[in-house]
Design goal:
The complex is a heterodimer of chains A (357) and B (342).
Chain A: H1 4-12, H2 16-19, H3 32-67, E1 97-101, H4 107-122, E2 128-134, H5 137-147, E3 153-156, H6 159-163, E4 172-176, E5 182-186, H7 191-203, E6 227-230, E7 236-238, E8 245-250, H8 259-270, E9 279-283, H9 289-299, E10 304-308, E11 329-334, E12 340-345, E13 355-356
Parallel strand pairs in A: 1-2, 2-3, 8-9, 9-10
Antiparallel strand pairs in A: 1-4, 4-5, 6-7, 6-10, 8-11, 11-12
Helix pairs in contact in A: 4-7, 8-9
Chain B: H1 2-18, E1 23-25, E2 30-36, E3 42-48, E4 51-56, E5 61-65, E6 71-75, E7 88-93, E8 99-103, E9 108-112, E10 118-123, E11 129-133, E12 139-142, E13 150-153, E14 159-163, H2 169-173, H3 180-183, E15 191-195, E16 201-205, E17 210-214, E18 220-225, H4 231-241, E19 243-244, E20 247-248, E21 257-258, E22 261-266, E23 272-277, E24 281-286, E25 293-297, E26 304-310, E27 315-321, E28 328-333
Parallel strand pairs in B: 1-25
Antiparallel strand pairs in B: 2-28, 3-4, 4-5, 5-6, 7-8, 8-9, 9-10, 11-12, 12-13, 13-14, 15-16, 16-17, 17-18, 20-21, 22-23, 23-24, 24-25, 26-27, 27-28
Classes of the chains: A alpha/beta (357), B mainly beta (342).
Chain lengths: 357, 342
């Protein structure tokens, strides 16, 4: 008596333990209640299995996505058939070559893309580069048109990201040897690193940069006559300084600084001492113009906004874009005509440097 | 248990703030310019058989140079194969003469024999700052993302243990900065690390003028504030305004931190020597027990020191930068006589 009732209740509302309770076959009744109970048990088993399976799958997917590591040195580069953004089939280079996975409008993408063009123009001493840009063909073609890059561009609709096992990574540089082995892979590279890698691969010797201070900008020098783009109008211009003015140069060192923070800091100064004479913010050519414009817009900067289209003379090396200056941000007080009257290094001048976390 | 230790640490910090540890201000430390490096970013300088080893970060090599900067040879060049380097950030010479190089962008430690041949590489996961090697060849790395201040790797590259409680911004700078505790959790725990001849471990914080001494097995022995004339002002100014004269930010960290303690070394006289900076740079020397400290202004107040290493006796090498110049190598003579100071 006592044992019978609970069993019936258990069949209708099974507890997890009861679900796995084994009963002798003779106990399986043909009554309607027992049939319903059996169905419910099966249903619960199926539901539980689905739930557990779902959870396991989700966990596996999550762990795979979070632990996914891009192809490293030692791996094989998948030279899959591909067409460039013009629809032409890509002929993979036979010898060592670079593959850069980047968006051009990322900071690293911009600096590398500019550097590659500089190298090709000046020395023709660079390994071939195949650039893969995420996005649809039209979108990437538009990006290429904006940045002026011409060849070796593949767009990625997701397949390359998968092949290269990039996960969430936004930038990756590979050096591939003649046997398709990846000999170098990194998610961080400066333009000069490509030069060094190229020279090492091509000649076995690397010419090391020797930044000579005497080539750096000094008081009394003329600061003018280099190419720039007005970031508000998009017009190309040659930098001149017709009147007395201040120029705040955000040099190529500035990837080590926080642009958002530094531009915000400038905005604070703008209405104070710096606001007395017309000032210009001049950004290194290595930055993403889109990003700069966004940040400057956020802070409502009134100053003239220029981006150099080449190295900032006297502050950046023409080839490597390395900065001569020890400071990330340099303020130049110019006389009419562009003669440098005073140089202030923002990260060394205690009064100007007011870092805020 | 951890909470208890945290309270204890806070009390010790407070005691460090309140207590005077025999600190005084001495004469200016003499600075001698040695040479200007060809690299724009230079890591540490180490003595090496009559020459110097200069870590050139963005040239991806270690230069063997004389004291005039004339290059005699190099170890490594850009790459990822054994023997190659990619953004070497720190260099330590082990007791056996081997060279331990921390490659920041390769995320690995590479060990070279004294002749410059690569012996071993091993990878480390989270972004490290600070490296020391004990007498057993164990490598100590500052890896706050691991949940502790220091990670210890065996000579064959296995992480064998961690030690050191992570500190909070508010423990250094007061309750005003409680809001930074989460965002600057890793950043404030970026450190310099050293081992002495007995394998005691010294740790100083880049983002606050504090140092700690640990026993060889990783027990915290004490913590002190680095006493220099700007120390209290630095703490007060930063706590109230969040303003710093220079800042430093690491890739994996959410926020920047003030760049206060720029270098740490043990000189030939077995003194702990720190370079610290607020308005100007100071050299602070302490005995290894932290009971006597003395601060010396640099005779060149514009010089901003980046790293320190021993040059024997009372001299230390410093990588520094002055306005208008790139990284330069200096020798600094640290005055003696801390024992007599009060």
């Amino acid at each position: 008596m006592f044992s019978h009732r609970p069993q019936q209740q258990a069949a209708l509302i099974p507890s997890p333990n009861q679900m796995y309770e084994k009963r002798p076959s003779s106990a399986i009744s043909t009554t309607r209640l027992d049939w319903l109970a059996a169905m419910l048990r099966i249903q619960n088993l199926v539901l539980t299995a689905i739930l557990v399976g779902g959870l396991v799958t989700a966990a596996l997917l999550y762990s795979r996505s979070s632990s996914l590591k891009p192809l490293e040195a030692g791996g094989i580069f998948p030279k899959a058939a591909a067409t460039d953004i013009d629809g032409k089939s890509i002929l993979w280079p036979a010898g060592p070559f670079f593959v850069v996975y980047t968006r051009f409008d990322s900071e690293m993408g911009v600096q590398l893309e500019k550097y590659l063009r500089l190298q090709l123009q000046r020395h023709n001493q660079m390994l071939a580069v195949v650039t893969i840009v995420p996005g649809g063909r039209e979108e990437v073609a538009e990006l290429v048109r904006q940045t002026g890059n011409a060849s070796g561009i593949l767009h990625d609709d997701g397949k390359w990201r998968k092949r290269l096992e990039l996960g969430d990574s936004g930038f990756r540089l590979f050096l591939i040897d003649q046997n398709s082995h990846i000999t170098f892979a990194t998610d961080y590279a400066n333009p000069d690193d490509l030069r060094q890698l190229s020279e090492k691969a091509l000649t076995g010797r690397i010419k090391y940069s020797s930044v000579d201070q005497t080539t750096g900008l000094r008081t009394g020098d003329r600061f003018a006559g280099f190419g720039a783009v007005d970031m508000r109008t998009g017009e190309k211009t040659v930098f001149t300084s017709a009147t007395k003015s201040s120029v705040i140069c955000f040099t190529s060192h500035c990837p080590e600084c926080d642009l958002e923070e530094e531009i915000g800091r400038y905005a604070l100064h703008e209405s104070q001492s710096l606001g007395r004479s017309p000032s210009t913010l001049l950004f290194s050519s290595r930055f993403s113009r889109t990003n700069l414009a966004k940040i400057a817009g956020r802070y409502g900067i009134k100053a003239r906004l220029l981006q150099a289209t080449e190295n900032i003379p006297g502050l950046e090396d023409p080839l490597s874009l390395e900065t001569f200056s020890p400071a990330e941000i340099v303020q130049l007080d110019l006389a009419a005509g562009g003669m440098v009257e005073h140089i202030t290094y923002w990260n060394l001048d205690n009064n100007k440097r007011a870092g805020q976390l | 248990m951890r909470t208890g230790r945290r309270v204890l640490l806070s009390v010790s910090v407070l005691a460090g703030v309140l207590a005077c540890v025999g600190q005084s201000v001495g004469p200016a430390a003499q600075v001698t310019f040695l040479f200007r490096s060809g690299s724009t970013v230079v890591g540490r300088v180490e003595k090496f058989d009559g020459n110097l080893l200069v870590v050139e970060d963005n040239n991806h090599r270690i230069v063997i140079a004389d004291r005039h900067g004339d290059v005699k040879g190099q170890i490594g060049s850009i790459g990822q194969a054994p023997g190659d380097l990619y953004y070497p950030g720190d260099l330590v010479r082990g007791k056996n003469g081997n060279l331990y190089v921390l490659e920041v962008r390769n995320r690995r430690i590479q060990i070279f024999d004294p002749a410059g041949h690569s012996l071993k590489t091993f990878h480390v996961n989270s972004e490290p700052t600070g490296m020391a090697v004990d007498s057993r060849g164990q490598v100590l790395l500052g890896q706050p993302a691991s949940g502790a201040l220091i990670s210890v790797y065996s000579p064959d590259g296995r992480r064998v243990r961690t030690f050191g409680d992570l500190r909070l911004v508010s423990e250094f700078y007061g309750a005003q900065l409680l809001r930074l505790n989460r965002s600057a959790r890793e950043a404030i725990n970026r450190v310099h690390i050293l081992c002495d001849g007995l394998d005691n471990i010294y740790v100083s914080f880049l983002g606050a003028p504090f140092w700690q001494k640990y026993s060889p097995d990783g027990r915290l022995l004490f913590e002190h504030r680095i006493e220099f004339p700007d120390a209290q002002r630095e703490i007060t100014e930063f706590a109230s305004s969040l303003k710093a004269h220079s800042t430093v930010k690491f890739d994996e960290d959410q926020s920047a931190i003030p760049y206060i303690t720029t270098g740490m070394t043990i000189d030939g006289l077995q003194r702990l020597v720190f370079s610290v900076r607020w308005d100007r740079s100071w050299i602070v020397e302490s005995n290894l027990d932290g009971t006597k400290e003395r601060a010396f202004p640099l005779e060149d107040s514009d010089l901003q020191i980046r790293t320190l290493s021993s040059d024997g006796d009372s001299r230390v090498f410093a990588i520094g930068a002055k306005p208008g110049h790139n990284n330069e190598v200096y020798s600094i003579t640290v005055p003696q006589g801390a024992e007599d100071s009060t």
